[in-house]
Amino acid sequence: MAAPGGLPVGMADHGFLARLSNERIAELIQSAHSVSYPTGSTVLTPARAGFALIVSGALRYHLSAADGRQLTVGYLGPGSLLGTVQKQATSIVHIQVIAPTVLMHLQPDRVSTLMHHRPDLVQALLDEAIQALLHSFRVLAASAFTTVRARVARDIIERAGLSGPLRAGFHLAVTHQSLADATASVREVVARTLREMSRDGIIATGGGGITVLDPGALTKAAGYEIASA
Fold this sequence. Notes:
Blueprint: H1 22-29, E1 33-37, E2 42-43, H2 46-49, E3 52-64, E4 70-76, E5 81-82, E6 94-105, H3 108-117, H4 119-145, H5 148-161, E7 171-172, H6 176-182, H7 187-199, E8 203-206, E9 209-212, H8 215-222
């Protein structure tokens, strides 16, 4: 079956788009325009970006402190939605491109019109917003009440999740500084944490990043529940 509106095959099965029918997706992206963003660039904050769909790539959205420290709130991949149609909205969230990304910017007026006539779209947006809010609460709670080891493990799992289910042998190209920025820590502490996790056989370092050796142990280190067979 062809992807709605000429989107890449399979994209409609991921993220926010998975909540919508192909018909609604086609309506939503009508008259949209695509923009490419290189790795390391910063996307306009959600309050100024309008609504946009991620066609390909990966984004990190984070909070920044006055002393330069950062805390990653989450990661977004293909099929995910970011932004708002509120013209006067404000935001303290920053969005960084962590892999070459293509965003499909939607027409704000069209989105607003559809929201007035498509109750299923409004419900999908509400469900997505609630899920994002709950995730943000979990991240902030983890930052306040868990160890650096748990925060680093969670960040590795979330980054890996952009490419599919966590599995042994998955290699993540990431620096110690990037993990420190993501977890509101410092590079030296993260480096020590990674050495400990490597010694415990959970991950391996080298090759420009981290390789997952034991997904179960990594999940446990992150404080996530492991479903029983």
